[in-house]
């Protein structure tokens, strides 16, 4: 007899703008890829962001956070929009997202940047530099200068106004992000580049010392170190040299945005945020794109690929993840493109039709 299906509970947070459109498509893809691998999902859709603020007065209602914490994984669309830009800080959709990350204790942010052969022309780099790029930035998400104390405004001896922030990392924070990165590098091409500013910053000196110490547990991974200024340069000069990059919160913020532009297509890029245990948070890197919301123009592939990351990194279901990744490649090979990645000769489709094409490929792989 066939094994009973594995069951997972997924909390869906469609959010604002194009969020509901791309989540609805990604949900169907996730469902089908799962069922072909003996996986049964139950989906629970909860309000989040501006939509939740309109409904409940809070961008992250208590019930939404509780549902997310109880789930096996969380798939988020996008949040925010002009409508809520004037909200007080604690009622902004973006604050809800920060609270969600905090509530899920996700400290590792994974952002792959892959130049797909079908889309090499949308890269900002020359074709021969862009071709074949396949890297992953692992960014520490809950420590460093964005959270360090003391912080604030003050006045110096001369009466000049000052603003100040503090870069702080403790051993446990470095060790746990390093372990996540080594595990990922191990499953990729076995190369990890740790990016810091250890020639200047004490927090970086400790970072380099701890990453080097943790490397002893991963003899199969080749560790290198790079200063952040050089890394920023190398990323545009010769990005193919990178497999997995691990870095702190602020450097990762900057380098992952830089890396995303190498691929040239914001509508294609997924992300994952993982904690020690408990559900991971998976979301496209793009925003709510209010300019195209409700017009069936959004590219759903970033969210579909986030669903693949959910399977791979969130649930350990690599086969189902591979099905989705392959289906996306198939669909691109057949020439289907949303507006953001369209070039002459392709077949222009909307969000829903793109989703239907991916579903066909999940169902009958070539
Ligand atoms: P946020 O502050 O929420 O991150 P943003 O201002 O950075 O938002 P996005 O919402 O990501 O910007 O949109 C930037 C541009 O990219 C917009 O013109 C938008 O239409 C386009 N865009 C973003 N995501 C997609 C997508 N999935 N498909 C097509 N176009 C997109
Ligand atoms: Mg943005």
Automatic annotation (TrEMBL):
Keyword field contains Kinase: no
The cofactor binding remark recorded in the entry reads: Binds 1 Mg(2+) or Mn(2+) ion per subunit.
Reactions that this protein is recorded to catalyse: (2R,3S)-3-isopropylmalate + NAD(+) = 4-methyl-2-oxopentanoate + CO2 + NADH
- What PROSITE patterns does the entry give? IDH_IMDH
Enzyme superclass (EC): oxidoreductase
Name its pathway. Answer: Amino-acid biosynthesis; L-leucine biosynthesis; L-leucine from 3-methyl-2-oxobutanoate: step 3/4
Cofactor names from the entry are: Mn(2+); Mg(2+)
Q: What is its EC number?
A: 1.1.1.85
The answer to whether UniProt assigns keyword Ribosomal protein to this entry is no
Looking at the record, the residues that make up the Isopropylmalate dehydrogenase-like domain are 9-358
Q: Which UniProt keywords apply?
A: Amino-acid biosynthesis, Branched-chain amino acid biosynthesis, Leucine biosynthesis, Magnesium, Metal-binding, NAD, Oxidoreductase
Briefly state the protein's biological role.
Answer: Catalyzes the oxidation of 3-carboxy-2-hydroxy-4-methylpentanoate (3-isopropylmalate) to 3-carboxy-4-methyl-2-oxopentanoate. The product decarboxylates to 4-methyl-2 oxopentanoate.
Q: Which NCBIfam families match?
A: leuB (TIGR00169)
Q: How does it assemble?
A: Homodimer.
Spell out the PANTHER family in the cross-references. Answer: 3-ISOPROPYLMALATE DEHYDROGENASE (PTHR42979)
Family that this chain belongs to: Belongs to the isocitrate and isopropylmalate dehydrogenases family.
Q: From the Swiss-Prot or TrEMBL record, give the protein name.
A: 3-isopropylmalate dehydrogenase
Which organism does this record belong to?
Answer: Hibiscus sabdariffa (roselle)
């Amino acid at each position: 007899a066939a094994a009973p299906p594995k069951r997972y509970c997924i909390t869906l947070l469609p959010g604002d703008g194009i969020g509901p459109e791309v989540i609805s498509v990604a949900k169907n893809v996730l469902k089908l890829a799962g069922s072909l691998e003996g996986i049964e999902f139950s989906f629970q859709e909860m309000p989040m962001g501006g939509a939740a603020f309109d409904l409940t007065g809070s961008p992250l209602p208590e019930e939404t956070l509780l549902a997310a914490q109880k789930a096996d994984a969380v798939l988020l669309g996008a949040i925010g929009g002009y409508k809520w830009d004037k909200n007080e800080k604690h009622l902004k959709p973006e604050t809800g997202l920060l609270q969600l990350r905090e509530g899920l204790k996700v400290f590792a942010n994974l952002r792959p940047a892959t130049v797909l052969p079908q889309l090499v022309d949308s890269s900002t780099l020359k074709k021969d530099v862009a071709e074949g790029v396949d890297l992953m930035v692992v960014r520490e998400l809950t420590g460093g200068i964005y959270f360090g104390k003391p912080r604030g405004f003050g006045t110096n001896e001369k009466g000049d106004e000052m603003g100040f922030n503090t870069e702080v990392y403790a051993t446990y924070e470095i060790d746990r992000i390093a372990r996540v990165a080594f595990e990922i590098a191990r499953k990729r091409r076995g190369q990890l580049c740790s990016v810091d500013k250890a020639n200047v910053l004490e927090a970086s000196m400790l970072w380099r010392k701890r990453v080097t110490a943790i490397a002893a547990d991963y003899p199969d991974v080749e560790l290198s170190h790079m200063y952040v200024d050089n890394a920023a340069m190398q990323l545009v000069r010769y990005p193919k040299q990178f497999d997995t990059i691990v870095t702190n919160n602020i450097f990762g913020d900057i380098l992952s945005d830089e890396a995303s532009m190498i691929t040239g297509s914001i509508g294609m890029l997924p992300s994952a945020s993982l904690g020690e245990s408990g559900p991971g948070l998976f979301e496209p890197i793009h925003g709510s794109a209010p300019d195209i919301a409700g017009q069936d123009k959004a590219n759903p592939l970033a969210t579909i690929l986030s669903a693949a990351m959910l399977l791979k990194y969130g649930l350990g279901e690599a086969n189902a993840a591979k099905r989705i990744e392959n289906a996306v490649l198939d669909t691109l090979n057949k020439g289907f493109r949303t507006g953001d990645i369209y070039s002459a000769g392709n077949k222009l489709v909307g969000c829903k039709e793109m989703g239907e094409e991916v579903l066909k490929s999940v169902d009958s792989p070539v």
